[in-house]
Every structure is written in C-alpha cells, then in structure tokens.
Specification:
Mean pLDDT: 85
Oligomer: single chain
Strand content: 35-45%
Length: about 375
Amino acid sequence: MRALALSILVCLSFNLFSQNSPVSPSAVKIDCDDMKPFQQGLSVVRKGRSWGIIDAKGNFLVPYGKYKSISDEGFINGYCAVSADVDKTGYIDRSGKLVIPCEYSLCEPFDDQGYAYVETKSYRGDSYMIKANGEKIKLPPDVKPGIQQHGIYDRSGKLIEKVDNVTIGKLSDGLIRVQRIVEHGEFKYGYLDRNGKVVIPFQFSYQPGDFSDGLAIVYPKDNTNFDYAYIDKTGKVVLEIKKGSLQQFSGSRESRYYNFSNGVALSRYNVNGNQATLLFKDGSVKGFNDILKHPKAATATFASMENGYILFIIANSLGLADKNGTVIIEPKFRSLTFFDPVSNLAQASYESSGVSVTGFVDIKGTFVIVKGSSSTF
C-alpha cells in the first residue's frame, strides 16, 4: 500500500505558512481536485474532467485539456498513455512529446525492454507489440506476449513454454517461477528467464518465492537441517534459516519473511505478536521497534516497507525511517507515500490546529507543492 488514508479535505488558511507549519513559504499551489503520486519525476493531476501533468517544481508539462484523459498509472519505464477520444489512445514520453499517435483502443504500460502491448479495437481488432519509435510486431489472434494462463509467449506471439494444469509465476527480477511435471510424474518448481530458458533446474518440491533483490525463498522437503533458505540466481543457497533460530522473535511460531528489498526482508510478527522483525542478508535478525531511533520507538507500529525504507506510525501519525532505524521524516502526517527516486518527493497529507494540507513533501518533510482548495459542493 503506497498511501494510507489519502483522502482529506484541504483548507488553506492564514496558519498554513506559520512558523510551526510543515509548508514551505515558497510552496507551489496547484489548482486541482486530485493529484497522483510522482512517478519517474512527474505527477498526473486532475481538475474536474480535465487532466494534466506537473513536474517536481509544480510546472505543467502537459496543460489541462490537451488530452481527454491521462493514465492514472502515470509514467512507467519512461512513457505514459494518453487519450484524445474514445478508442484513441497513444503515448507521451517524459518531455511531454507524443511519440505514439492516439489511434489505439488499448495501450498497456511499456515494459523494461521498451515494448508495449496495444490493440486497435476493443473487440476483434488487431494487436501489436510496439516500440517508442513506432516499430510494430503484429500478433496472432487471441495471443498476448508474456506470461499467460497456459504458457509463456515471446514478443511475436510464439509459444516458448507450454504450461498445462500447473502453476506459473510472474516475471520478477528477470526470472519466472514455473512448475513442471518431471520424472515419475512428480511436480517440481524451477525458474526460467523471459525467453523461456531454464536458469535454475526443476528441483523444488514446495513452491518457492519470486526473486527480489537477487534472492528467492525456498523450502526443503526435510527441514531437519534448516527450516527455509534463500537462493541466488544461480540456484545456490546463500542464506539458511535454521529451525528454532528465530525463537527469540517468534515465540512458538517461526517467522516467515517476505522478499528481500534493498538488503532486508521483513516479518509481521514476533513473540508479542505485533512487532515487525527484519532479516538482513548477513543472517542477522532485528526487531523494528528495537532499532528505531525515536523517543517513542516502543509505541511505534510498522506500516509498510519499500526499497529498504519503512513507513511507521506513532500516535496515529506516519513517519519514515531507513532500514537501520534512522528517522528520516518525523511521524506527523495523516498519510504518506514512499519517495519517488527521480523527483525525491512523496505524497502526504497533514492536519493540525485547523490546518489541513495535501500535497508533496521533500526529504525534510516540508510541503513544496500543495493542492488547492476543492469545491465545497
């Protein structure tokens, strides 16, 4: 969850720029009804039924009304879908230039290889994989490249891995988890690359995790030696979690950690049933409340983690810390997202002493862009 309790009424009063206010005196006010979190340095904003795009300084890259609609997803891998009319959708780049004309009924986000899936009509139209330079690959009818229910298809629509009555995961960190029937009718899991090549053999009896931050969680058939482990992209076990080794944090239950992100994985419970615990790649385990460097750390509640940064709550207010527990933004916000790495801005809302503000804060927790007042009715 990138934002918590995001919707709030905005009331800009004379207190807004007071000494104790978190709003910069030079903050830019955007006249809008809605604003989306920054993606790759840009934010989609809406006023009534008009859409626009602003940059990190509050300047309009795309003015209201230039397009009938703009994708809520914003910029993904450098491009954003925009529509001139019904069944008339194309793409703009981060400079605001229309690079793919608005002539498609469906435009999905560009992937990390520079391709996007498009359709010419919503029913029985042609479908293509398209590049930003306009180069197109026409696809066979009813075929969509990538990971589908019954197999993996390349960009031309060719089936490269057939999967019948088994499971197939998503493309994650460059690899895909797939289940196959091997010798003696056994079901085993392994990993393929995006081209269908086997990278890690089909050897796992229990469903392993997706790769993230270069590691994936796996489970042994016999947990006598270790309860679970993490493997790297060659299939080598690089971290074993031995049975009982996390007892100090998990009590009668063993913690189950999520995927690694920027060197750390997390679990949601410990011996008290509420403290998040962090597992580091060197095998060390730490309780979040124990490492949080804040006077009220004992009362903190873990909210979410992304790329090694942690949103936490103290006294119903959100703050941000790094994976080592250093507080980056004091807990004072009603809602807060993670920072966009390009703009270094996070979406936030604040309410105190009759002042309500929604907008974007910098790394110091100061509003530099604020949302203008919405219509009362």
